[in-house]
TrEMBL record:
<keyword id="KW-0808">Transferase</keyword>
<protein>
    <submittedName>
        <fullName>Putative glycosyltransferase</fullName>
    </submittedName>
</protein>
<dbReference type="GO" id="GO:0016740">
    <property type="term" value="F:transferase activity"/>
</dbReference>
């Protein structure tokens, strides 16, 4: 199964929560995971994704044509949602 994780960013607090959640999800299955950050990903998140072996794209809010086509190619789009202006703009 292909899963696209959509998140505003992968910063300190929220990024740690998302990474911990994904560690459990990855351990429980062998699905393909990809993360699209609308804004930045900090160094910790980038190193973590590299170690886990799946792609993490950052600053994609500026380039929706580079990733929106993937929505039709995956089985699940999981939005790690919190009140963030970039998500509000995306879903408006």
């Amino acid at each position: 199964m292909k899963i696209l994780h959509l998140t505003p960013h992968m910063g300190g607090g929220i990024g740690t929560v998302v990474m911990d959640w994904m560690d459990k999800a990855i351990a429980a299955n062998d699905h393909y995971h990809r993360i699209v950050c609308l804004d930045y990903a900090n160094d910790k998140a980038k190193k973590w994704a590299e170690k886990k072996g799946f792609p993490l794209a950052e600053n994609m809010g500026r380039y929706p044509l580079l990733w929106k086509h993937e929505i039709s190619e995956v089985d699940i789009v999981l939005t790690h949602f919190w009140d963030h202006p970039m998500l509000a703009d995306l879903f408006a």
